[in-house]
Amino acid sequence: MKNILITGGAGFIGSHVVRLFVNEYPEYRIVNLDKLTYAGNLANLKDIEDRPNYTFVRADICDYDRMCELFAEYDIDGVIHLAAESHVDRSIKDPFTFARTNVMGTLSLLQAAKNRWNGEWEGKRFYHISTDEVYGALELTRPDGAAPYGDEFFTETTKYDPHSPYSASKASSDHFVRAFHDTYGMPTIVTNCSNNYGPYQFPEKLIPLFINNIRRGKPLPVYGRGENVRDWLYVEDHARAIDVIFHRGRIAETYNIGGFNEWKNIDLIKVIVKTVDRLSGNPEGHSAGLITYVADRAGHDARYAIDSNKLKRELGWEPSLQFEEGIEKTVRWYLDNEEWMDSITSGEYEKYYTEMYGGR
Length: 360
Ligand code: NAD
Ligand code: TYD
Description:
- The protein contains 12 helices and 12 strands.
- The chain is an alpha/beta fold.
- The chain has a 7-stranded parallel beta sheet with strand order 3-2-1-4-5-6-10, with helices on both faces.
- The protein starts with a strand and ends with a helix.
């Protein structure tokens, strides 16, 4: 494979995947296709935008004719599909946009790939990036002990049981990808990953939102009692897993990717508060008073926890960072890159797109 289409490369995880592929594979042509929704930010890729093996294309994955043109124009033989609407709270308010992009957009991309490859599957690959949220919620059977907070984990054979409009749309897209393998023989792979954290995450998600609010002395809205559990993985470890699976993963397989790193939200939030205070030179406890319990998210899944042993066993991938190290690196990055965060929270980053593209 030489010409790789990465969708959603201007977003959080996508920008790390694009950077890794551009750096590691100078012999490939990396085409980053992104619509630049509110979550897409080309500032995430400033360090690699001038590389000869990198091309950016602004397009909407739902635009089937445009997808067909692009597959032909760049002679695409590998796809790593990350473009999606990704925030659960937004999906609760606006489910249509999630069905459009995540379901219809994925279908349009699959159909364009099928049209271009025309049954010649040799050397082709369609790799779809998905989430552990499609599996639904696990019970907290050991809520008061140390992690793991329950006896069960999501494995590759766990039945799909999505609860939010976001996870329902991702589940649907996963089914379409598998259907294209089963029906037409397209070489597909699906991976389901746990919560990512790290640099360049849009500050609507828990970790960057809270770092930003602490910095600005604003309240930290904890949903419900803060007892929900998530399994956190450093984003560069996810990008590394994607590299390994794209090149060596078995066709038609599913791989779960996770950190074996469960945290109750409230415990994680306390670590974030402590770390931001320490690295900002504030006395211990300075920002603890910002923690504010608010109404719970509708349909809030109790616990996610991934069993990623299959990936370890088959392809030797494991998370490289301990959580303490990852969170320290992450907080430090946001504090060292205040202008990145400020340009988003002030809306300044919109001006760039308006000048370049006439708005979003
Ligand atoms: P993100 O919201 O940061 O980025 C999504 C990107 O997709 C943005 O650049 C956006 O402009 C682009 N996009 C949205 N709609 C588009 C469209 N119609 N056409 C073209 N581009 C479009 O998301 P993220 O957190 O980086 O997640 C990337 C992928 O990984 C998603 O598929 C998500 O479901 C999956 N995932 C995310 C996590 C996580 O913790 N963030 C965990 C597991 C899986
Ligand atoms: P989030 O980062 O939105 O990821 P996801 O919902 O995909 O897991 O949220 C992580 C957890 O933090 C989730 O249990 C919801 C909770 N949360 C809050 O308590 N307050 C907030 O302001 C946000 C954004 C999330």
